[in-house]
Amino acid sequence: MLKSLMMGLVGLGLSTMAAAAPVTEGKDYTVAPNTVQLGSDDSKINVTEVFWYGCPHCYALEDPLNAWVADLPEDVEFERMPATLGETWVKHARAFYAAQQLEILDEVHEDFFDAIHQEGEQLTDPDDMAAFFSDYGVSEEDALKALDGFGVKSQINRASATMRNLQLMGVPALIVDGRYIVSPSNAGSLDNMPRIAEALVEQVREEREAAQ
Question: CA–CA distance from 41 to each of 27, 38, 203 (Å)?
Fold first, then answer.
């Protein structure tokens, strides 16, 4: 209850800051060298978090980001994309997409983070991942099939291609409308990243209205 209240207050504070402070290219965010297609609904403004389960900064971003996402308006869609910058990263990306395919991602996501950063687990071996997933109502056999399935491999390849097109070399990052990149170094802090993203969402909204 207390954590939920605190997250709600954080979200309120972020919204207030976003309304008060404009953002500047090169200072608060960068523009990707190539625009990428993210999301499933072109009518909505997409915000994608690029992350790695093994990244402590990504883990620390979870609370302020989730607080912000909880209050997103109807014209904004949020999704996550696991980064694929190394062998362990790809293994964790496989876990993310397998959990998504097994329809347990919403339940697993935070616990997977906790297991790595609070309990010291590696969760890179398929058998360990399958055992972890078995606590969420799926069999280890089904989990192993998903982890090694064509669909998961295709999604990993797509994520890798997206990262190459964005020339993204670090996480966490928030990608707004497939072209604006918010990083901790530009934002100044992890807590400030959702504020910058919110201002960019408003910027995209104004751009779209002007183009109509």
Answer: 29, 9, 18
pLDDT digits (tens, 9 = 90+) for 81-131: 999 999 999 999 999 999 999 999 999 999 999 999 999 999 999 999 999
Other Cβ atoms less than 10 A from the Cβ of 141: the count is 10
Please report where in the chains the tokens 């620390």 appear, as a residue: 60
Residues in the chain: 212
Please check whether residue 14 is in contact with residue 198, taking contact to mean a CB–CB distance below 8 angstroms. yes
Q: What is the CA radius of gyration of the chain?
A: 17
Residue 49 in contact with residue 174, Cβ under 8 Å? yes
Number of structural domains in the chain? 1
Q: What is the CATH number of the domain that holds 197?
A: 3.40.30.10
H or E, element range at 211? helix 193-211
How far is residue 96 CA from its own chain's centroid?
11
Structural domain of residue 63, as residue ranges? 2-211
